[in-house]
Amino acid sequence: MSEIQQTIRALCRQASAASRFLSNSSGHKRNELLQEIANGLEAASDQLMEANRVDLQHAEQNGLSVAMMDRLALNEQRMAKMIQGARDVIGLTDPVGEVTREWELYNGIQMQKIRVPIGVIGIIYESRPNVTVDAGVLCLKTGNVPVLRGGKEAFESNRALIEVMRQAAVKVGLPAEVISFIPTTDREAIPAMCRMDEYIDLMIPRGGHGLIHTVVEHARMPVIKHFHGVCHIYVHAEADLDMAREVIVNSKCQRPGVCNALETLLVDQSIADHFIPEILATLQECGVEVRGDAAAAKAAGQSLTEPEGWDVEYLDLILGLRVVDGMADAIQHIDTYGSHHTETILTSNQEIADEFLARVDSAAVFWNASTRFSDGGQFGFGAEIGISTDKIHARGPMGLEELTIYKYIGRGSGQTRI
Fold first, then answer.
1. Residues 85-96: pLDDT tens digits?
2. For labelling alongside 304, which of 44, 63, 225, 392 has CA 20 to 30 A away?
3. pTM over 0.70
C-alpha cells in the first residue's frame, strides 16, 4: 500500500469514527458548530484571502482561463457571502429525525419512517473554494461527516478553510475529524478514496467527464454524479424576442464559469434570419464568442467558428449557436448532446411550453426564465452541495433533505411473527 493510500485510509477511518459521534449529536449542537464556523471564517478572512492569492498566482502562472480564475477567486464580497451562507444554514429546518410516515401494523406495532444522516460522504470537486464551505456546513448540519478533495487550483484556499472549520469543531466539543481534507493533489488520491467503502458511505463527484469517469470506474460505494452543465435555451417561433435577449444574456454572461450558465443556444429556423443577427450583435457586445453551425452563420450574415462539439461545457464567454427545425429538433438535440442539467424554452405559447417541460429529461427545465435559476439558494433550499444529474436518490440541487436517508422504527409490545 502506497503512502497516499495509507494516509487516506487512516483519514477515512477517523472520519468514520467521528461520524458515529456526530450522528448522535443534537441539532442544537450542530447549529452551534455552524455558528462557530461562521465566526471563525469571519475572524480569519484576511488569512483566507491570502491563501487564495497564492492559489491565484499559481493559476495565472499555469495559464488558467479567465472564467476559471473567476471561479477560483475569493474577494471580500464572496467571503461575506460565504460566511452569511453558513449562518443562513443555521436557520434552515433540520431534516434529521423528521417523521415522513407513521402507521400501525395489523399486529399493533407502531411504525415510523424517519430521516437520518447518510454517514461519511466523500466529495470531489474542482476550482471553487466556496464549495468547501457549502459542502461542509450542509453535511455537518445533517449529521454527515464530509471528506473533501478539492482541485489542485484551490489547494491552499481549501486547506485554510477546512482548518478553520476543524478548529470550530474542537471549540464546541466535537472531534476535529467531523470534517476532513485530503492533503494531496496527487491523482492517486481519487481512486484511493473510491476504494474506501469500508468507511465512506457515498461519493459525490462534481466536475467534468474525466473526474466523473474516474470516480464511477473505481467507486465501491454509491455515487451521485454532479456532472458538467451543458445547458440549453431553445428560442421558439413564438418567443417574445426582447425578453429572449435579456434571458439569454443573463444565462450566458451573468457568471459564465458556473455549471448552470448557458452553453448552447437553439433558435427556431422560422425566426433565425430575424433574431440571430440581433442576438449575435448583443452577445458580441458583451464579449461572447459565438460558435455556430452553417445555418446559424448564414442567418447571421457572417462567418462563425464551428463549435468544438455540441457536448462541450465551455465555462467561459463562448456560446454554441444552432438553428433547429422546430421543437422536436430542439429536444432531439438536447437529448443527444445535453448533460441533463438545465434547459429553458422561450415562448409565449403555453401549450408548446408545457410540452417542452414534460418531454425534456433534465434535472431542471424552465419556461421563460434564465438557466441561472437552477440553484439551491434560488429554489429556497439555502446552500446546496451541488446539482445532481443522476436519477437515483437525488436530482437537481442537493439541499439538506437530499443529504439524508431514512430508516424504519417499530415500537411493539411483545409481538411475535406467526
1. 899 999 999 999
2. 63
3. yes
Residue type, 146: P
Rounded Cα gap, residues 404 and 383, in angstroms: 15
d(CA 306, CA 365) in angstroms, rounded, equals 27
Within 8 A by CB and 6+ apart from 138, the residues are: 89, 382, 383, 384, 385, 399, 400, 403
Grid cell, residue 18, equals 467521528
Which of 123, 126, 125 has its CA nearest to residue 67? 126
User: 266 has which bridge partners?
Assistant: 234, 322
Please name which of 205, 155, 191, 185 lies closest in space to residue 9, comparing C-alpha atoms: 191
Instruction: State the Cα–Cα distance between residues 41 and 331, nearest whole angstrom.
Output: 45
Q: How confident is the model at residue 207 (pLDDT cuts 50, 70, 90)?
A: confident
Rg (CA), the chain: 23
Cβ(391)–Cβ(362) below 8 Å: no
Q: Which of 394, 359, 365, 333 is nearest to 202 (CA)?
A: 394
